[in-house]
Design goal:
Blueprint (H helix, E strand, L loop, with lengths): L1 H20 L13 E6 L4 H10 L1 H6 L2 E7 L2 E4 L9 H8 L6 E5 L5 E5 L4 H9 L2 H10 L1
Parallel strand pairs: 1-2
Antiparallel strand pairs: 1-4, 2-3, 4-5
Length: about 140
C-alpha cells in the first residue's frame, strides 16, 4: 500500500512537470481562465511594455495575460514558454493587423480592437462585462 502511494505521487509529479514544459502554441488553452490583451507589432514595444508593467496590479486583478507581439519574439506576463509558432498562430487566428491592441474575453471572443493602448478604456470594457461583475461580487 505504501508503494502505491509513492507510485501515484511520482506519476502525478511527472505529469505536472510534463504539462509545464509544453510550450503554449495558441491561446485556446487560456480560454475561461484569462482575458487577453494582444498588442500586435506596435511602433514602440518598449512603451507598450512599460504600460503593462505600470498597471500590473490591475492586470492581475482582472485575470489578464498580455502579449506584445514584435519582430523577433513576444513579450508577455505569461509564466510558461511560448512555441516558435505562437505569434503566427495567434496573428492568423484573430487576423491581427499591425499596430493594433486586441482585447479577448475569457470566452475567446474579441471584445475590442483599437489602434493604440488605452489601458483605462480596456479596464472599463472588462469591468462592464457580466463575468467580471460576478467575479467582483464573489471577491467582496
Amino acid at each position: 500500500m505504501k508503494h502505491i502511494k509513492y507510485l501515484a505521487l511520482l506519476a502525478f509529479s511527472l505529469l505536472s512537470n510534463a504539462s509545464e514544459s509544453i510550450p503554449l502554441d495558441d491561446i485556446f488553452t487560456l480560454r475561461w481562465k484569462n482575458r487577453l490583451i494582444i498588442v500586435n507589432q506596435p511602433t514602440n514595444p518598449d512603451n507598450a511594455l512599460s504600460l503593462m508593467k505600470k498597471y500590473s496590479k490591475d492586470i492581475n486583478e482582472r485575470d489578464i495575460v498580455w502579449f506584445i507581439l514584435k519582430e523577433g519574439g513576444a513579450l508577455t506576463n505569461y509564466s510558461g514558454r511560448l512555441s516558435d509558432s505562437f505569434m503566427s498562430n495567434v496573428q492568423q487566428q484573430y487576423r491581427l493587423k499591425k499596430n493594433t491592441v486586441t482585447l479577448i474575453g475569457k470566452d475567446g471572443g474579441i471584445k475590442s480592437q483599437e489602434k493604440s493602448i488605452d489601458v483605462q478604456t480596456l479596464f472599463s470594457t472588462i469591468d462592464a462585462m457580466q463575468m467580471r461583475q460576478r467575479e467582483v461580487q464573489l471577491n467582496q
